[in-house]
Design brief:
By secondary structure, this protein is an alpha/beta fold. It folds into three domains: 303 residues, Metallo-dependent phosphatases (Purple Acid Phosphatase, chain A, domain 2); 37 residues, no CATH class; 116 residues, Serine Threonine Protein Phosphatase 5, Tetratricopeptide repeat (Alpha Horseshoe), CATH 1.25.40. It is built from 16 helices and 16 strands. Strands 1, 2, 3, 13, 14, 15 and 16 form a seven-stranded mixed β-sheet that branches. Strands 7-8-9-10-12-11 form a six-stranded mixed β-sheet. The longest helix has 24 residues. It is elongated, with a radius of gyration of 29 Å.
């Protein structure tokens, strides 16, 4: 059983600032509390931060560049201390994504100009609703704008990505961090859990508030995961925007993205934005039902004017069961003295809420067993190395799995060791030779390592070997004996 610390919306309210040390102290103190609660909550092995790292700067604010940099400095100080306290300083186990507050409004506004009325007359509504549209509507100015400088527009997250490059410097990931890819990959729980972190700020700017993931990104992420050298016990996704909202609100993300994730085998999703801790299950029906648990976290640092009525600052502890098929969400809420304790109302009436998902399946509808799948992938890679004449590389690859439990893997390892002339390795692999081929290979290894007495005894013991094979082994043994005599 493991747990993941899920926090979100770290944007600091200017009117109600939060001191980093006080916040860290409150989280550490709450860790002491939930470790002793029933049901048991283990210490977190990873941290998910689902967006809105900073508050941002308003359009035209004096010194807005310096202000954003300063806010990221404060955020880095907090996240480094959080990593040090809960993860032993391993920042690769702390997952970050951007939120709408991380989008620079001043940069996006500078990339726009007022649209020509001839372009928009009578059709502005349809223009701004098109996915990837260059047009925006300003309710404040009652004017249509158009993105005139696409290169500048795509720099709206530069401050965020500069912060990310600095924060993760020196740490490694399944794929290198790439600011233009639309997703990043992380591993938790000693590489048993894969987390895909999606940027849901596509099209998000000073006039466009809806969350969106760039078309094709979820699919490309799924393909990238398939190409990784291993399989995982659990596939998780993280994005920022909520997937449900009031009818008149336009700042949430289309649930179709989550349905695509579920259809591609993601089992649990984390998000923030709505400032309320909650859980739900998203199901899609193909030939079978695919279910994905979705968990939202409240805001850790928002002020009273940014929080829903009656809601305080919150965060979650998500407990994953040992079989990776379900878990619990423990919502923690800030109360008196700036301290956290368990939320015990709504769906968290019992102090936690249950979540579950469906096991991963392959194309044949069979449940994927990661250990077996990883062994299969390793064997395929070793085969390719051996066919390409890279016997030592094939041997290194195949020995990363337990070849004793797979007869074909053992044979492949022996063939690679024989071709690479790794005689000591071959002797270890054949400590129990059970087939004629294995007896022959072991005899060769014994001869090559000058263990001639044992080699002679092995050849004499196995009279069932074909006469030409015995003759060849005896000839090889005789040559070795002559050399040894010299």
């Amino acid at each position: 059983m493991i747990s993941i610390l899920h926090i979100s919306d770290l944007h600091r309210s200017p009117s109600e600032p939060v001191n980093n040390d006080s916040l860290i102290a409150a989280l550490v103190a709450d860790g002491d509390r939930y470790l002793g609660e029933t049901p048991r909550v283990p210490p977190p092995c990873g941290i998910v931060v689902s967006g809105d790292i900073i508050q941002g700067a308003r359009i035209g604010e004096e010194g807005w560049r310096e202000e954003m940099v300063s806010q990221y400095v404060t955020a880095k100080d907090f996240l480094c201390k959080l990593s040090d306290r809960f993860l032993g300083g391993d920042r690769s186990q702390l997952i970050l994504i951007p939120g709408n507050h991380d989008v620079c409004w001043n940069t996006s506004r500078s990339s726009m100009e007022k649209a020509n009325p001839n372009e928009t007359d009578g059709k502005i509504a349809s223009l701004i609703e098109q996915r990837g549209s260059r047009y925006r509507w300003s309710w404040k100015d009652q004017v249509a704008y158009k993105i005139a400088d696409s290169t500048l527009y795509h720099r709206k997250l530069d401050a965020y990505w500069d912060f990310i490059s600095d924060f993760y410097s020196g740490f490694t990931f399944p794929l290198p961090i790439d600011r233009s890819r639309g997703f990043q990959l992380f591993e938790l729980d000693e590489s048993r859990i894969l987390v895909a972190a999606f940027d849901s700020t596509y099209g998000n700017d000073c006039f466009g508030y809806s969350g969106d993931i760039e078309p094709g990104v979820v699919g490309r992420c799924s393909l990238a995961i398939r190409d990784l050298p291993k399989a995982y016990e659990l596939k998780a996704a993280v994005w920022h925007h909520s997937i449900e909202g009031p009818p008149m609100r336009q700042d949430y993300m289309d649930v179709s993205h989550v349905k695509e994730m579920a259809g591609l085998g993601f089992q649990i999703g984390f998000h923030g934005h709505q400032h309320i801790g909650a859980t739900q299950t998203r199901s899609i029906h193909l030939n079978e039902e695919h279910a994905m648990a979705v968990v939202s976290a409240g805001s850790l640092c928002a002020g009273a004017r940014e929080l829903p009525r009656g809601i305080n600052r919150q965060y979650n502890i998500v407990v994953i069961e040992d079989d990776y098929k379900g878990g619990r969400v423990h919502a923690r809420e800030m109360g008196e003295g700036g301290q956290f304790s368990r939320k015990t109302n709504g769906e968290f009436l019992m102090g936690h809420a249950r979540i579950s998902w469906l096991a991963q399946e392959n194309i044949a509808g069979q449940i994927v067993k990661p250990d077996e799948e990883n062994a299969r992938r390793t064997i395929l890679r070793a085969e390719e190395f051996l066919k390409s004449g890279m016997a030592k590389k094939a041997l290194e690859e195949i020995l990363t799995i337990d070849v004793g439990t797979n007869s074909y893997a053992k044979r492949l390892a022996c063939e690679a060791a024989l071709e690479a002339r790794e005689w000591e390795v071959l002797k270890q692999l054949l400590s129990e030779a059970v087939s004629e081929d294995e007896v022959v290979w072991l005899a060769i290894a014994l001869i090559e390592t000058r263990d001639l007495v044992q080699a002679a005894g092995l050849i004499a013991k196995h009279s069932e070997l074909a006469r030409p094979v015995v003759q060849q082994l005896n000839d090889r043994l005789a040559v070795a004996q002559m050399k040894a005599g010299k």
